[in-house]
Amino acid sequence: MRQFDLRRVISRPLSRRVLEGLLPLSLGLGVGTTLVGGAIAPPPAVAYLILETVELQRQPADTYSSFLTRAQAIAATTAQRQFEQDVLASEVSITVLGRNNGAMTAVLRLRVSRHDWQRYPDARYWVTYFSSARMLLGFPQSDPTPEPQAPPPNSAPPGETPEFPELPELPELP
Length: 174
What we know:
The chain has 174 residues and is of the alpha+beta class. The chain contains six helices and four strands. A four-stranded mixed beta sheet has the order 1-2-3-4. A hairpin with a 2-residue loop joins strand 2 (89-100) and strand 3 (103-113).
């Protein structure tokens, strides 16, 4: 065990004695401030992706176009609901599964960030179609498959909403 020697301490310069005494104090205050600050301040928000799957039953009078129109509407409604219910969600991915006579397959997926959805809340911009769905669900091949629309370019100056390009009209339901 080390002996305390008063002569050694006194022989050191005053500035060194002061610094040696302040070092433990400053370290203690720094750690204490960090611990208290962490306890008071909330943790930073973490944005995340919401994955959801929705099933859609084929109706007897459905054409492939009408079925896809319903699938897009369901995906858009689900995306909007998820963004409204969960303020931390930064992105949603909605997969619509089609069902017909016991067969089930992915028909489309809508994946969009909150920022893009607020700017362009139209599912046709953000949807990806699965081409095998028509055959797997038993739809005839003569009905045309819609192509996904490209998102509009950001041509407006900051702070202004850009113009939406015109989307082609979907066929009306019978």
